[in-house]
Amino acid sequence: MTVPTAIPVSLLTGFLGAGKTTLLNHLLREPKAGRIAVVVNEFGDAGLDHDLVEQAAEDVVLMAAGCICCSIRGDLSRTLTSLLARRQTGMLDFDRVIIETTGLADPGPVHHTLLVDPQLAPHFTLDGIITVVDAVLGADTLDQHSEAQAQVAMADRIVISKMDRARRVDTQALKRRLDRLNPRATRLQANHGAVPVEALFHLSPLRRETGPQNVMDWLSAAPLPQSKDPLAGLSGFSVPQPGLTAAIEPSSHHAFDNRIVTASIEIEEPIAPGVFDFWLETVIAARGADMLRMKAILHIEGTAPPYVIHGVQHIFEPPVPLKTWPHKDRTSRVVLIARDFSQGDLDHCLDVLRMRPKEVVAEM
Ligand SMILES: Nc1nc2c(ncn2[C@@H]2O[C@H](COP(=O)(O)OP(=O)(O)OP(=O)(O)O)[C@@H](O)[C@H]2O)c(=O)[nH]1
Question: Are the beta carbons of 111 and 149 closer than 8 angstroms?
Fold first, then answer.
């Protein structure tokens, strides 16, 4: 009797806007990567991430909205079990799974779920944790967000994205930071997600060296400047207990959760030309640094294709036209993830997009 081999699962993580989906899309276009089932965890109700992953429509599984740390256990277990059932009945054919986490996810609970869930452990094996770090904003993000530190500390591979934008001084500071947080993981550099596929898979042999104690040591060596407890908010490493599984049991939640607010809007009517530009310029000028992430699919009045716009703090990419609308309707959808806003203020900020040009100028 042949024992079925466990399906490798790669965890693709990295802070908001670091370049995870860009890397994933590169992998999905690469024949050498094999057949991949993708699990995407959304942040924000408008469900935009799903539409931004290319080429794998029927194999992309969308998980419930919210933070992967909170929702992961039951949802991940159900999602992977369902993928397995569909594979066993021949409805889906895939060689490996990639889970793209939200940018605020702590990889600890996902790792834990894969290791100990009795439904999953016999069928899936963690191939590796791939963490994407933004070459330009990465060092600052690591200073500010414990989630970003956990993502780097647990990585088997670190992919430094956006090298095309980075200055030497940015990358030197970042590399020093990464040396302290995770001296073990090999680093790759990526421009627009282009990396050799072989370097991202078969990482499990490296994992033997990653005990909870290693991660504890690296995180302790690189505390958040403003935090007395360098481990605050991380995935339970602060409370080591006997045995591996106990030591990685999540014990607390994000230290900065109460600073991060998300809001989304769906607008059925086309947005008036100029309104979006004016709104964006005003938002960036007023609070650019706190707009951790903005994603939008927009229907601008008088234009046929939908436009995708990405923003990461004050850095916004030029709008990219999509060939087709991802859904039958032409509803614009905008997701914002911001720091130090009240929910009311962030919701109101998005409501401005429903206004006509004269109203917007008066409002902002
Ligand atoms: N210049 C440049 N831009 C990049 C690169 N990689 C990604 N980007 C851009 O960075 C923005 C965010 O990229 P995504 O791949 O969506 O980032 P993400 O980590 O999936 O974002 P979230 O899922 O929201 O956390 C997009 O506008 C990308 O086009 C790169 O190597 N160079």
Answer: no
pLDDT confidence of residue 236: 29
* Closest ligand 1 atom to Cα of 316: 27
Residue 75 has pLDDT above 50, yes or no: yes
Q: Residue 168, SS3?
A: helix
- Which CATH number characterizes residue 265's domain? 3.30.1220.10
User: pLDDT tens for residues 40-67?
Assistant: 765 544 455 556 555 444 445 555 444 4
Pocket residues: Cβ below 6 A from ligand 1: 14, 16-22, 49, 103, 161-162, 164-165, 190-193, 293, 310, 312, 317
Residue 222's CATH number: 3.40.50.300
Are 186 and 323 within one domain?
no
Which pair of tokens denotes residue 181? Answer: 């947080």
113 and 61 share one domain: yes
Residue 186 structural domain:
7-255
CA 103 – CA 234 distance, rounded (Å): 14
Shared domain for 167 and 288, answered yes or no, is no
Nearest alpha carbon, ligand 1 atom 14: 19
Distance separating alpha carbons of residues 79 and 85, to the nearest angstrom: 10
pTM for the predicted model, two decimal places:
0.76
* Cα–Cα distance for residue pair 157/165, rounded to 1 Å: 21
Least confident of 128-142, 231-245, 279-293: 231-245
